[in-house]
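User: Could you check the structure of this?
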Amino acid sequence: MNLIIFGPPGAGKGTQADFIVKKFNLYQLSTGELLRKEIRNNTNLGNRISSIISTGSLVSDDIVKKLVEIFISDEKYKNRLIFDGYPRNLTQVETLKNLLNKYEQKIDLVLKLSVSLETIKKRISERQNLEKRADDQEETAIKRYKTYEKSTEPVIEYYKKLNILKVIDGERSIDQINKEISDIINLI
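Assistant: Sure, the predicted structure tokens are below.
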């Protein structure tokens, strides 16, 4: 089973993806984490990514595609992936569909964590005290939230039409969200 989890930066995608990984023995493919790893490793690509993220912009599809294909092509992750933060636009949807077809896989379920901008700002300010991230400045967070919402709207509609989209109220407690996600996955 391959899943996608959506939600704006700060919505709790990573937390929920960690839960799903442990409970259902899947592998989390977090584009955000892949990008941060490149930055941490101080690669040329990482330096390019860092300057893009610090302005509140999203990283190009070509960069993300290269990182994603590594995992889709690996037999040990076949039909065991949860995509966290990808795809974010219709070009990436088409790219993912083609990559999955190429490696004889598909998306079984799409989860969307629905969270307000006010909640995101509150979570970002709380997170700043725990783990400093380049995308944790409030102005940057607001810009990324708006960019995310605008760019993913057509993606959400695409998966809704395929009847594999489930919207989750991301304003609730982590445990409540975990339970709802578990119940949904157990029905697949």
